């Protein structure tokens, strides 16, 4: 999610961004990816990166009212509290998913010997986070916690669907930070086929959210929306291929973007140093690092 | 569960004068405000071991009939099952918004309060440790206190707040207050004319922040920057808490902001 959020935001606001797939997580300061490298500053953590982009005048929220800005914060909090635990669980904790999809995928993108222990570490951290924030009485067993977090996630998806209604984006006809965040959270759920994918099944019952993801993918990421891949190894390959395509995108995609994209009236877009977004893996790869 | 609300419903929290901490006081006040708004009488009972009596380990909890429910979320559900609700008049989109804002408050304000209480060394030394274990003899008081601190710090680390500095936390609080202030605007309540559980929650936290004396005023200053939020708190205080014979933040607090809850 963090990487998908940032790319979506960059697209919406017109920031020229190149995605460099670095496959060496060691180089990242403090091991946090994705990292934004601009001139000589390196910034990690999505929220800080978003702030930086805004300060550089790439702002997708210029036309939002104060209240809409406040709503954005609130909905992001909702996503982090209610949807994130289930997402983490689906990707990193659910044994079948982790062993058959997440781990091989992630491990294939990072060099040996990191691939030996980094996925395991991330899996443990995910479980830790879930248990610490959502476990505890009166939920005493892991299955109870799991049941609760999926209930919460499904409710969250329902709420998002109600909020989106029939509009194209969350605040009218142009995308904003909130759209980037929602897309960042939903896209992995929507696109990655897991053996145990109850979240995906639930999401598919909410057609406006699916349409939302498809719209963004096709408008801003120039992907044709493909149908379901057959289950099994083929699925993994198909996903990998699709994601490799995403990663190989060039920044000239920016020029072809919709006119709807917000440019701040007083600050013409800067054609300056290309901002490099360093990522450890493909774009909507599972959570690289948990940063709030 | 269609029994009517009994007369002897009780809300349990820690000892008010000596023991209760900022975050727990905020949560407790939020529930009290909510019940007041629903016109459901409840008396506040202070017990040193309230935390341990609670089914989820968190305060406050209410004891109604033969059921025990803790924390605002479940209490709202419970009250709804009894036929009282503040948010029935909202449409689906508004309900979604309300839930989102409640998460925002929990995510930012509550976490910031916990951070300040348990991760800021000065506050921990001077306020939290002495208060938290105060009803118990030494060494139990220190042990309980350290245990809780360790638990909270673990949680902070898991969600990524452990690396934050106090300034960053205060900035987050400011951002949250700004969002709340913008959403409230000039309305009397968040969803215009009628208060909802969101109003109760926001009141609980903001009022507590405004009236609790800590080692420094920075936290309450952040809230005071937003006039409509301060006015909001005063309004709810006047409407729901004054003129009641209750053992909580009643007219003793009066108009001024500072009331010392702590030694």
From TrEMBL, chain A:
Residue numbers spanned by region Disordered: 259-292
Domain of life: Eukaryota
Subcellular location: Mitochondrion outer membrane
Keywords attached to this entry: Membrane, Mitochondrion, Mitochondrion outer membrane, Protein transport, Transport
Gene Ontology, cellular component aspect: SAM complex
Residues forming coiled coils: none
Primary localization: mitochondrion
GO BP term (any one): protein transport
UniProt entry tagged with the keyword Protease: no
Residues in Mitochondrial outer membrane transport complex Sam37/metaxin N-terminal domain copies: 6-122
Domain (Metaxin glutathione S-transferase): residue spans on this chain: 153-216
Gene3D superfamilies: 1.20.1050.10
Name of the protein described by the UniProt record: Metaxin-3
TrEMBL record, chain B:
Mitochondrial outer membrane transport complex Sam37/metaxin N-terminal domain residues: 28-148
Annotated spans, Disordered: 244-263
Cellular component GO terms, alphabetical: SAM complex
GO aspect biological process, one term: mitochondrion organization
Intracellular or extracellular location(s): Mitochondrion outer membrane
Chain ranges of the Metaxin glutathione S-transferase domain: 174-236
Mitochondrion as UniProt keyword: yes
Record keywords: Acetylation, Membrane, Mitochondrion, Mitochondrion outer membrane, Protein transport, Transport
Main location, first listed in the record: mitochondrion
Top-level lineage group: Eukaryota
Family matches, as CDD domains: GST_C_Metaxin2 (cd03211), GST_N_Metaxin2 (cd03079)
Gene3D superfamilies reported in the protein's UniProt record: 1.20.1050.10
Assembly mode: Interacts with MTX1/metaxin-1. Associates with the mitochondrial contact site and cristae organizing system (MICOS) complex, composed of at least MICOS10/MIC10, CHCHD3/MIC19, CHCHD6/MIC25, APOOL/MIC27, IMMT/MIC60, APOO/MIC23/MIC26 and QIL1/MIC13. This complex was also known under the names MINOS or MitOS complex. The MICOS complex associates with mitochondrial outer membrane proteins SAMM50, MTX1 and MTX2 (together described as components of the mitochondrial outer membrane sorting assembly machinery (SAM) complex) and DNAJC11, mitochondrial inner membrane protein TMEM11 and with HSPA9.
Annotated family: Belongs to the metaxin family.
Role of this protein: Involved in transport of proteins into the mitochondrion.
PANTHER family cross-referenced by the UniProt entry: METAXIN RELATED (PTHR12289), METAXIN-2 (PTHR12289:SF38)
Protein's recorded name: Metaxin-2
Organism: Struthio camelus australis
């Amino acid at each position: 999610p963090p990487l998908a959020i940032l790319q979506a935001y960059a697209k919406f606001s017109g920031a020229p961004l190149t995605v460099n797939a670095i496959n060496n997580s060691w180089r990242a300061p403090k091991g946090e990816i994705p990292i934004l490298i601009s001139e000589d500053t390196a910034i990690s953590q999505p929220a800080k990166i978003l702030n930086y982009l805004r300060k550089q005048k790439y702002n997708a929220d210029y036309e939002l009212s104060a209240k809409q800005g406040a709503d954005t914060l609130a909905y992001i909090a909702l996503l982090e509290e209610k949807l994130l635990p289930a997402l983490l669980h689906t990707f990193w904790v659910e044994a079948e998913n982790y062993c058959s999809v997440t781990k091989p995928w992630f491990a294939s993108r990072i060099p040996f010997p990191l691939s030996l222990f980094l996925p395991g570490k991330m899996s443990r951290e995910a479980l830790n986070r879930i248990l610490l924030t959502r476990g505890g009485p009166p939920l005493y067993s892991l299955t109870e916690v799991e049941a609760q977090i999926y209930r919460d996630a499904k409710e969250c998806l329902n709420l998002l669907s109600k909020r989106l209604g029939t509009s194209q984006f969350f605040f009218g006809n142009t995308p904003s930070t909130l759209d980037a965040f929602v897309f960042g959270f939903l896209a992995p759920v929507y696109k990655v086929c897991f053996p145990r994918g109850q979240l995906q099944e639930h999401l598919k019952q909410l057609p406006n959210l699916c349409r939302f993801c498809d719209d963004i993918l096709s408008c801003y990421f120039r992907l044709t929306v493909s149908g379901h891949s057959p289950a099994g190894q083929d699925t993994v390959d198909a996903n990998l291929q699709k994601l490799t395509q995403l990663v190989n995108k060039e920044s000239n995609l920016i020029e072809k973007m919709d006119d709807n994209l917000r440019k701040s009236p007083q600050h013409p877009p800067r054609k300056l140093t290309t901002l490099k977004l360093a990522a450890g893996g493909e774009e909507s790869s599972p959570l690289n690092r948990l940063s709030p | 569960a269609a029994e009517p609300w009994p007369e002897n419903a009780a809300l349990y929290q820690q000892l008010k004068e000596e023991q209760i901490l900022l975050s727990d006081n905020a949560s407790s006040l939020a529930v009290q405000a909510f019940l007041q708004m629903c016109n459901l009488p409840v008396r506040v009972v202070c017990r040193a071991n309230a935390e341990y009596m609670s089914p989820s380990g968190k305060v406050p909890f209410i004891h109604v009939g033969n059921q025990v429910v803790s924390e605002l979320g479940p209490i709202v559900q419970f009250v709804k099952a009894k036929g009282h609700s503040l948010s029935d008049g909202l449409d689906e989109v508004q309900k979604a918004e309300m839930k989102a804002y409640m998460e925002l408050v929990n995510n930012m304000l509550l976490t910031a309060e916990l951070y300040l209480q348990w991760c800021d060394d000065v506050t921990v030394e001077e306020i939290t440790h002495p208060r938290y274990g105060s009803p118990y003899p030494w060494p139990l008081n220190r042990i309980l206190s350290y245990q809780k601190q360790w638990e909270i710090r673990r949680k902070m680390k898991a969600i990524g707040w452990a690396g934050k500095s106090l300034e960053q936390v205060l900035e987050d609080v400011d951002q949250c207050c700004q969002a709340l202030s913008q959403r409230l605007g000039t309305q009397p309540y968040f969803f215009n004319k009628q208060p909802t559980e969101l109003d109760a929650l926001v009141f609980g936290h903001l009022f507590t922040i405004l009236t609790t004396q800590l080692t420094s005023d920075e936290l309450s200053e952040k809230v005071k920057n937003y006039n409509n939020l301060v006015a909001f708190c005063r309004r709810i205080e006047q409407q729901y808490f004054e003129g009641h014979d209750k053992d909580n933040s009643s007219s003793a607090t009066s108009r001024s902001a500072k009331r010392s809850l702590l030694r």
